[in-house]
Sequence to fold (365 residues):
Amino acid sequence: MDSALQLIIDQVRAASAAGTALRIRGGGSKDFYGEPPAGELLETAPLVGITSYEPTELVVTVRAGTPLAELEAVLAERGQCLPFEPPHFGPDTTVGGMVAAGLSGPARASVGSVRDYVLGLTMINGRGELLTFGGQVMKNVAGYDVSRLMAGAMGTLGLITEVSLKVLPVAPAEATLKFQMNQAQALAQLNRWGGLPLPLNASCWVEDAGLPTLYLRLRGAVAAVDAACKTMGGERQHNAAVAPDWTLCRDQQLPWFLARGERDLWRLSLPQTAPVLELPEPPLVEWHGGLRWVRAAPDDGARLREITAHAGGHATLFIADSARQIRAESRFDALKPPLDRIHRQLKKEFDPAGIFNRGRLYLDF
Fold:
């Protein structure tokens, strides 16, 4: 065991013995996400490096503090990628933070989420024990798949030290089509396309310069992409011109997001078949209708959650107006009693003293 890892284990064990809270931090790029956790800083920055990469096996094992950009650069050299397009939010985003946050980019509805690509990981639990779960191959498991359970747990169950990920080859062909259509038309068309054998990869509907516009990205075999472009219509865009826009969409940096002003940014996760919702203003729609971003005033939160729940989804206060602090309610939707009980039992099992990221997911968790 190297000295950097041993120092972190010692810090966790000391905190556990004293009941001292620890707030886990990688590159700090997602400090805005969730409630600010309490406690002494526990940094993953010393845990860096790609420990194993087998391009022919499509698997890579990386230490948690490794910059995400560094990993993606190594994969790109071999014509491979993380197909779920994890957002960066800055140059210091780490692989551990990517898994802990569980956020995926524009391609998520077509290729799956970060959780689907986690094969195994090593973590430190609240007792200071170093535990390994999963492996480097896809297989069925009985009970909880702990390695995937850590994806999206926001560090509340333990500290990820190393993770094995499935990677995929970069698609041979890509094209973006542009359509002028309103939100209802876009949702209906996306649902129709979803039932056809088309190489759909990502979509973004937004009022662009005042015009309701759907951008649709195709990825796959050259013949499949070319055939889809001929039959689907729309205006084919130059890949080099639109690639930066897809990156900005991934990181919520498109002009639509930057025009938020003093409003909150809400993230609504919905069934793709959900209709147009009565929102404060037209949203930006991704994931073929399954993800809808909403800019809203601070007092719109309860209404947004009601609307989203009625449509079969859930709402997250993704970025709060920086001029205020949200403490009266969680930024995440409250769990229903059975799920809440399971979450709390898992927390007690992995972190019995409750030292990791107190309050990051829920105010009392």
Notes: The mean pLDDT is 93. The longest strand covers residues 211-220. The two ends are 31 Å apart (CA to CA). The longest helix spans residues 3-18.
